[in-house]
Design a protein that fits this description.
2 copies of one chain form a homodimer.
Chain A (H helix, E strand, L loop, with lengths): L2 E4 L3 E7 L2 E8 L1 H9 L5 E7 L5 H4 L7 E8 L5 E7 L6 E7 L19 E4 L4 H9 L7 E4 L3 H6 L1 H8 L4 E5 H8 L4 H9 L5 E5 L5 E5 L2 E5 L13 H14 L6 H18 L6 H4 L3 H15 L4
Parallel strand pairs in A: 1-4, 1-8, 2-6, 4-5, 8-9, 9-10, 10-11
Antiparallel strand pairs in A: 2-3, 6-7, 11-12, 12-13
Helix pairs in contact in A: 1-8, 3-5, 6-7, 8-9, 9-11
Chain lengths: 302, 302
């Protein structure tokens, strides 16, 4: 089954203590689709400007990614610049230039409209809603990301799209802000009243936590001696998570747990190098190996 | 096999958003020995003042805890007062009155000197060393706790005792301070050069992480909707961890992993109520149940 993702395709300028790049392909939909394409076919919907070259598009070529929904508009692509602190756990945004992304109005190619697995990356909640309205029939699984901007500026629109989402996949600060609860269990209970029946909390260097009616499942972050660039880690996590589920597995508890592990695997690779560098050269067998390593990291027998 | 613990027995005044107690029995050796006594016999060495009553000693009665090494000195017992913030992840110390603990000079009763499992709770590194010098023969396992005060004020003394410790069990801030490394893997590698071959990092609401030559093992914190008082969580963790290992298990990788789980189990119970309230009424079967719950929290099949 193929997996639809709608979100940003961007150029990033990134500084970390481990280096600096002035312009590298990024954006939530890019990280997501590259990560997910190791597991399933991905249909990408986004917008780029006329600065997006064939060379940029090469990242999608030879992968199971259909970019016929990647609109090209006159103007420049979304641009983001940021700098990470020494420990990579904080960042400052140096520039956000929406450019053509500011006018983004997602239009799904006809062949994408029967998608059963959908990931709505972090964009305007109204646009996330408009994507779902273009879907024919009832999707199996809709997962949603959002951020503080929409939680603060568009609470009603966010509530509307949340009613239609099965899985909310956000970080811990967003979880606390949306629910007005510090405790993540109580936060999850609040979020369940808004629509989603599963909450996936991304906690950076502390891993990820899933809460649903089956209880709680935790995966640590993969211990790396020298992560270089956290950009795209959360979207790569989402790509591994949704890619695994869209590859034909019934989303039962065991499959959701594996999805959490594959999400963590893809997030851990993403941070090893700048931008998409590591995912670009990743091999399927490395994914399998790292998933086994996650087992060694967490498994015990009483 | 019995387990020796040397550390503080104190009275605590605790404020949290969930309540307030003016004077409750606490101290590292108290939490440790009550937690460990569910797994093995514990020999406690510490000092209390003449304000320590038979009623206070009742917590140890009926448990496998030998308090013949609990010295009674003229004066008042160690007193600590602290207040936790709303989310229980920060605290301010309101008072620290060392009292008789300021003159503490641990003397091991003869029958304690052949102990094979030893936990040196957070006290002066020189005293930790003097405890080991009283031990006859070679102990199987020496675990050590310390804190920022000793890392800053007694670095040479701390280095000396570290040479004789198998396991260092500290929190993440202490790990980073001692090693001058933010990254916990690099921090562990540094600490291994100082003596310990196993590092256990206590990470509060994020659980615990063990690093040794077998690699890394992570356990999340048990998700609780309403923890009340984090006081003693780390010492209860240490009690569960060392108690399990001292109960006759060879400290191989599988046993160390289980020790991490039982440590987390005991820490999670400790925070559920104020002071020792929860541990005091804990049943063995609740420990077994919660350990199984930790399995559900973390286990997956690829």
């Amino acid at each position: 089954m193929s997996l639809l993702v709608v979100g940003s395709v961007a150029f990033d300028a990134i500084e970390s203590p481990h280096g600096k790049v002035d312009r590298t392909l990024g954006g939530a939909a890019t990280y997501f689709s590259v990560a997910a394409s190791f597991f399933t076919h991905v249909n990408l919907v986004g917008v780029v400007g006329d600065d997006f070259s064939d060379q940029d598009a090469a990242i999608f070529a030879g992968r199971k990614i259909d970019i016929s929904g990647l609109e090209r508009a006159p103007g420049k692509s979304f641009f983001w610049a940021g700098r990470y602190n020494e420990n990579l756990n904080e960042r400052v945004t140096l520039a956000t230039e929406l450019n053509v992304f500011g006018e983004f109005n997602p239009r799904l190619p006809e062949k994408f409209r029967s998608s059963k697995h959908i990931f709505l990356a972090n964009i305007d909640a109204t646009l996330q809603r408009s994507v779902l309205l273009q879907i024919k029939g009832k999707p199996h699984l809709v997962a949603l990301d959002t951020m503080n901007y929409w939680i603060e500026r568009a609470p009603l629109e966010l509530r509307e799209i949340l009613r239609h989402a099965h899985i909310l996949m956000i970080n811990d600060a967003e979880t606390r802000q949306l629910s007005n609860e510090h405790n993540l269990l109580r936060a999850a209970r609040h979020i369940f009243t808004l629509g989603p029946k599963t909450l996936v909390v991304k906690r950076g260097e502390y891993g990820a936590m899933m809460v649903d009616r089956n209880g709680v499942f935790c995966v640590p972050a993969f211990p790396l001696e020298e992560p270089q660039d956290p950009t795209g880690a959360g979207d790569s996590f989402a790509g591994g998570f949704m890619g695994y589920l869209a590859s034909g597995k019934a989303p039962n508890d065991a499959a959701l747990r594996r999805a959490m592990v594959y999400g963590s695997v893809m997030g851990s690779f993403a941070v090893e190098r700048f931008g998409l560098e590591r995912l670009r050269h990743l091999k399927r067998r490395e994914i399998v190996q790292r998933a086994r390593h996650f087992a060694r990291l967490t498994q015990f027998r009483l």
